[in-house]
Amino acid sequence: MKQLLDTVWQRRGTSWIWDEEARNQMCVAGEVWSLRRFLQAVGNWPDDLPSNSSNTLVVAGLEGSLDLLTPEDAETLLGDVVKQAILSFQDAYDGQAALIFWLPSGQGRIKFHPATDSIEWRCAAPHSDNLLAFGRILWGEANEYPQVILLREGSKPAGLFHLRIT
């Protein structure tokens, strides 16, 4: 999987970050939207986004929502609700804004498969033996496109970046 040292993820595309330093570079706590607010904004996006000089929207709550659902319902939420909201966001800003999902325990929950570049999400207990096909659900396994965000050379992954989901 390609690595990204550039800061483009802070201005464009969709990212899923779990590194607190990365999140703090983007926003202060009061600028973060809940998943509910994000989903309610579909089709009625604001002219100015709350973070990074109106270039970025940071959303929290996806992880907690997935944790409360069965794996089947979590897959439906990701594929039918969240993906549609991401597409709406991309269209509203013509790809000229960043959407960032804050996943506090994402580093331990995102599973990379280097041989195939596929990405999975480990479900929470009592379904912790289940993995959601995160990449297939959200970007249709276009595995050449997601990139691992690095804040500096040699650092641990801070998140995932995808320029444009289709």
What labels describe this entry?
3-stranded antiparallel β-sheet, globular, alpha/beta, 31% helix, 7-stranded mixed β-sheet, 6 helices
How would you explain this protein's 3D organization?
- This protein is an alpha/beta fold.
- The protein has one domain (2-162).
- 31% of the residues lie in helices and 23% in strands.
- The chain has helices spanning 20-26, 35-40, 62-67, 71-92, 106-109, 134-139; strands at residues 2-4, 13-17, 33-34, 56-60, 98-102, 110-113, 118-122, 131-132, 147-149, 159-162.
- The strands form two sheets. The protein has a seven-stranded mixed beta sheet with strand order 1-9-10-2-5-4-3, with helices on both faces. A three-stranded antiparallel beta sheet has the order 6-7-8.
- Strand 7 (118-122) and strand 8 (131-132) form a beta hairpin.
- The relative contact order is 0.24.
Category from helices, strands and their pairing: alpha/beta
Let me know the average pLDDT.
Answer: 94
Number of helices: 6
Radius of gyration: 15 Å
Kindly state the number of beta strands.
Answer: 10
Ranges where pLDDT stays below 50 over 5 or more residues in a row are: none
Helix content: 25-40%
Tally of separate domains: 1
Largest sheet: 7 strands, mixed
Tell me the distance between the termini.
19 Å
Shape: globular
Record the strand order, biggest sheet.
Answer: 1-9-10-2-5-4-3
Helix and strand string, N-terminal first? EEHEHEHHEHEEEHEE
